[in-house]
Design brief:
By secondary structure, the protein is of the alpha+beta class. Helices cover about 30% and strands about 20% of the residues. Strand 7 (about 220-230) and strand 8 (about 235-240) form a beta hairpin. Helix 3 runs antiparallel to helix 4.
Length: about 425
């Protein structure tokens, strides 16, 4: 069984992601702790948030008060809903979250059974549950649960079953589709540049560009997301990052770069990925063989080619390690020149659908089309519980919670309309 977890700032976003699976018939709520189950069994995000809020202090000392966990048994493990719920509860108890409010969801959108658990890291007294040695502690817990429930042991290439669906413009509701991809990806994966982030999104038919310009004398910088076709070309109008909440703007993304850099450095992720890439590279000769060997190890390869088809950049996306790494981070033996020489005889059709548009990591693109006003990317300080529970995507739920917060009356001067 593989466990993955991430810390986030938006409880609303985590609950909405899982509840949408339930509403679409692709999931169900298996169990809750300190969250009241409706008499009709139909949960909604607004009521659930109110239950979570009852156990949170009015002010918190962390910008990441939410934890989102996924537990993924081996594909050959056939478990009942009751067994999955029991495994979820025991994991939370041993992981130190037994006294916290949480919800256990089962996802049925892919072939492999897996559960997601949403909880909070802040206790009622304001103290924060320690994340020290989380990976080591989690590993010991899953090993124990495998033995207790007679589960298959985890495999190196089993991966985690958080598989997202690439966006499809023909299905409509583009904003919702993009949001359902960028939110989990931006928290679960490590990437250190905009180019690496772009390569990750490319797997899901999403493009991202930095924009900058002048709006009435005020300079701004921001991001826009776009739908992509199979050849990596933009389809339709771009979507400003402000549509998806501040966590997906340029400022937060750059902070994510720094955090990812530290995580990769301390965990040695790059060394593990490099070993797998090296083994695949040594045993293959063509691009298609190389890709197939990498995929067996849970790694995707995204190439950047110029108009003549020459490779000028490569990015490896390790889904087991949740890391996105440009080839330069893995060593000169995987440089663009080396890959070009190795794959020079490949026919063009082998790379069309896995080649991103021409960009460099430091490239900035000024986009004026449908961006007449500057994107709102300012970061407000987290002042209280309510600010971190604010919905990230406006309009996704007409029953958004009413936050009970007293507002100071502002004194107004001059003529009022």
């Amino acid at each position: 069984m593989v466990a993955k977890f991430s810390h986030g700032s938006s409880l609303y976003g985590a609950l909405t992601y899982n509840q949408e699976k339930v509403d679409e018939g692709l999931g169900k709520v298996l169990a809750t702790n300190l969250v009241i189950e409706p008499t009709d069994g139909i949960f909604n995000v607004s009521d659930c948030m109110q239950d979570f809020e009852r156990f949170m202090p009015s002010h918190i000392r962390t910008s990441k008060p939410v934890i989102h966990i996924s537990l993924n048994p081996h594909p050959d493990d056939k478990l009942t809903d009751n067994q999955l719920a029991d495994i979820g509860r025991e994991y939370m108890e041993r992981f130190g979250y037994g006294g916290q409010p949480y919800m256990i969801f089962k996802h049925e959108d892919i072939g492999r059974e897996h559960i997601h658990i949403v909880s909070t890291r802040v206790r009622t007294d304001g103290s924060i549950i320690s994340d020290s040695k989380n990976y080591e502690r989690s590993r010991k817990i899953t090993d124990l649960l495998e033995q207790k429930y007679g589960l298959h042991s985890k495999e190196k290439n089993q991966g985690e079953a958080w598989q997202l669906t690439p966006i499809d413009v023909s299905q409509g509701n583009l904003k919702k589709q993009v949001a359902n991809v960028i939110k989990p990806l931006s928290e679960m994966y490590c990437f250190q540049t905009l180019g690496e982030y772009r390569a990750l999104l490319f797997l899901y038919n999403i493009g991202v560009e930095e924009i900058k310009g002048d709006n009435k004398g005020k300079m701004y910088r921001g991001l826009v997301y776009s739908a992509l076709d199979d050849e990596g070309k933009r389809i339709g109008a771009p979507l400003k990052s402000s549509l998806f909440g501040k966590d997906h703007g340029l400022d937060k993304l750059e902070k994510r770069f720094e955090k990812s850099k530290e995580t990769i450095k301390t965990t040695g992720i790059a060394k593990q990925t490099r070993a797998n890439v090296s083994a695949s590279f040594a045993n293959t000769r063509t691009e298609s063989e190389f890709r197939a060997a990498l995929r067996e190890k849970g790694i995707d390869l995204v190439l950047r080619r110029n108009d003549e088809g020459r490779i000028y950049g490569a990015t490896f996306i390790d889904h087991n390690q949740r890391a996105v790494l440009n080839s330069s981070r893995l060593g000169k033996e995987f440089s663009a020149n080396v890959l070009n020489e190795r794959f020079a005889d490949n026919s063009p059709h082998e790379y069309i659908q896995t080649t991103v548009p021409k960009h460099s990591d430091n490239q900035q693109t000024t986009t004026n089309q449908q961006l007449q006003s500057a994107p709102s990317e300012t970061n407000d300080a987290v002042g209280s519980l309510f600010s971190v529970f604010t919905p990230e995507v406006a309009g996704t739920d007409n029953k958004q919670p009413t936050l009970k917060r007293k507002k100071k009356k502002k004194r107004r001067y001059g003529r009022q309309q």
